[in-house]
Amino acid sequence: MRGYLTDMRSIIPRLETITGPRWVRHRTAELATYAMDGLPTRESAPGLVVMPGSRAEVIAVVRELHRAGVPWVARGAGTGLSGGAVADPSAVVIALTRLHRILAIDPVRRRAVVEPGVVNARLSEAALPFGLAYAPDPSSQAACTLGGNVAENAGGPHCLKYGVTANHITALEVVLPDGTTTRLGSPAGEPWGPDLVGLFVGSEGMFGIAVEITTRLVPLPRAIRTSLADFASIRAASEAVSAIIASGVVPAALEMMDQACVQAVEASIYAAGYPTDAAAVLLVELDGTAEGVAGDATLVESLLLTHGARTVLGASTPAERARLWQGRKKAFGAMGRIAPDLAVQDAVVPRSALPDVLDEVGAIGARHHLFVSNVFHAGDGNLHPNISFDRRDHALAERVHVASGEIMAACVDAGGSITGEHGVGSDKRDYMPLIFDAASLDAMCAVRRVFDPLGRANPGKVLPVSACREWIAGGVR
Amino acid sequence: MSDAVLTRLRALLGSAGVEREADGLPRATPDSSEAVAQVCHVASEEGWRVRVEGQGTWLVPDAPADLALSTRALERVVEVSPADLVATVQAGAPLDEVRRRLADHGMWLALDPPGRPDRSVGSILATATAGPLRHAFGAVRDHVLGCAVVTGDGRLVRAGGRVVKNVAGYDVTKLHVGGFGGFGVITEVHLRLRALPRADVTLTARGPRDRLTAAARAVSEAGLTPSALELFSPALAAEAEWVLAARITGTDAAVEGEANRLSAIGGIPWQPLPADRSASFWGVAARAALGGPVTLRLGVLPDGLDETLDLVAHDLDEGLVSAGGSGGLRWTGIATAERLRSLRRSTAAREIPMTLERAPWELRREVGHFGAYREGVGMLVGKLREAFDPKGTLQVALEAGT
User: Fold this and answer.
1) What CA–CA distances, in Å, run from B213 to B226, B324, B325, B328?
2) Cβ within 8 Å, pair B355-A190
3) Is A411 left (phi over 0), alpha (psi -120 to 50) or beta?
């Protein structure tokens, strides 16, 4: 381990030459800022942090690290929640937040070209005057960056109708781990050859760094209606979700919160007036043309009532809609009142399995004496069971770890997946064999080696060590 | 050679799974992903070249090979889950059969590829040939949640999953959709479904080309979202003028409202197609893409459509052309390698990729499905092919000079 750190010191002057001394951080206190990505169970400070300020500096930094044989982790805002943007002390973090320019917005073609450090919500703000928006809207959109969204193939509530990040990226300029650059995709989205943009999106920073991102922009809907329905049981709410989806209506968003979550929100400064005696509340948002929304709303509201909704509250003005959304958007913040730490889980199940899996998640929590709350994207079966805990209590943290594993297994048994939008990172790496056999994992390793033969970009993530024999903390390949 | 191949295959698959094609080429018709893997494994070991066939109606199965591998026996609809809007289908299943099965459950696969209605699902995925519905529902890749693939050396690998949202592992499915089989044989796919629309209305307008392309842009600028908005050349539509067709699907009220709004836009006379003619209209247009030996697509945005149509007319001919309201142009006709290369050069300079979708083997070999790669892309594609087909078993002309 010491050997790595010595090597690290020797590259500081070279990196400083590229970025200026101000943008290379190596003091312990400075490095601590980069030790987590929102997941309290994964903490590790990098050996160094370098903050290039331009595309050219990114290329120069990657070339220098390639030459020195030092592994690195590209990082945006560090909100990924999977341990994916966390580096070992033997690796360098390349922080991309200084590359925050929106290079172009083309309202005719409905495209934007951005640098990777642009914050998600800022792109939609910049597109607003043109009547356009960037559709994927992760809950962390006020902080997370588009480069991180590309790496993780980020989702969000409105992905039910509009699709995830992969559906909105048409072209990328990427720096490969050896420092060479290449352009993938085209403005229209048609690939030059095989769909390498599609392959790159969601590669969790292991194929290289996207230094220029071309995105689609979508027209803002002319009408939006948000409805809040509350239910006496989670099962009834889940069945209402299935009924809406089966009706052919595609809501812009379809979100559920369970009682634990509602009560946490209502007890916090974010209180939105949700009924605290409800077992579950459902937020349904419809958008489109005025006629379309009106027709769909009538259908959806009658489906909610026939499937057991106690009340349905509708809102069409921006202020009323914002109030209904407030509880959902601030749910994670509200959890902060309950315990110092929150393990935000992420898994996907077939929609039809939602009631059974939620029962199972509740039983797992009870068995391990844990406080579990659920707030999630019900329309696409993307669960976020959240476990409140205090990581200083090691016995409790261990129970969280065991329960998380059992929740993953339950979701996989139901035909689901271990992550819907947060990525595998280091947190879910050991669960990968639950859903992929050895040959399939091996094929992923082979793809990784095409982009990064030396395994230097975000080493040790996504692929289980047994599958890939990758470089790991303090070890060798 | 062919007798030895035949004997080995019969030992592997039994005599029912092996026959000779008209030209004497041994043809294996395995009925499971595992059996496909066995065939590829043996072929790779023995150094046999394999060409993959679906129904053989889109890409002519004419690559020189020691062995044809047909997916025709992989024809099952394995599972339909209406509540989850997901279906699992074997790659050789004909699309029209899949459509019927889904309709029984009130489900819909929003893909309307060019060619015959009985094209295999595997062929649609491998060539990424989407039709007019891509305007609202996206490219082929947007309908595929996961797949099983047999690599050139016979490894059965899976990518993606059976849920609508999934970021576990690299998205290797994207490599296979539109990979023309160069990275393996797709044997099974998980498809994203939609509820069968209650209302489905088509309107058409006729007129000079430029007027219709302007009208199509006006429709998009007005924020209208028809499921398809497709421009057809006179030859393709078999009419005297260019035709712009809009297909609107959804609930009754929404479709009626959208159709009314559409009628007021673009200053062109929209006419609703009688309900009983709508399906045949789109079906005839899809089949028209088989009206010549060569089909190509160009990834052009709507604002570049007029210029690109001129380029195509100049380098090739006006011919059988269709173009989508949100971009994408498909041309079918007769073309030489030289003309195709010239068109690829001029469109590449405008950031418009050209993909050769179908052509006789000689042309595919000379021009490649893909070309005009940006710097570095060819190296990545080459290494990916080595990873998935280390011995070059699969006869696919991804690039020129294969």
Assistant:
1) 15, 10, 8, 13
2) yes
3) alpha
Q: Does the pLDDT at position A4 exceed 60?
A: no
| pLDDT computed for residue A330 by the predictor | 86
- Cα B284 to chain center, whole Å? 17
Is any Cβ of chain B less than 8 angstroms from the Cβ of A198?
A: yes
Tell me the pTM. Answer: 0.96
Residue A12 makes CB contacts below 8 A (sequence gap 6+) with A24, A26, A48
Residue A3 has a pLDDT of 45
| Measured distance CA(A130)–CA(A23) in Å, rounded | 35
Collapsing DSSP to helix, strand or coil, B72 comes out as coil
Say if the Cβ atoms of B387 and A447 lie within 8 Å.
yes
What is the rounded distance in angstroms from the CA atom of residue B399 to the CA atom of residue B397? 5
- Any CB–CB contact under 8 A between B331 and chain A? no
Hey, what are B279's tokens? 């399906």
Residue ranges of chain B whose pLDDT lies below 50: none
Cβ neighbour number for residue A289 with a 10 Å cutoff: 18
Separation of alpha carbons A429 and A408, rounded Å: 12
Q: Percent helix, strand, coil in chain A (nearest 5)?
A: 40, 20, 40
ipTM of the complex, rounded to two decimals: 0.97
A256 to A147, A235, A332: CA distances (angstroms): 28, 12, 13
C-alpha pair distances (Å), A385 with each of A258, A324, A372, A449: 10, 21, 6, 34
Could you tell me which residues come within 8 angstroms of residue B212 by beta carbon, excluding any fewer than 6 positions away? B205, B231, B242, B243, B244, B268
Question: CA of A1 to nearest chain B CA: how many angstroms apart?
Answer: 29
Angle formed by the axes of helices B33-46 and B2-13, nearest 10°: 150
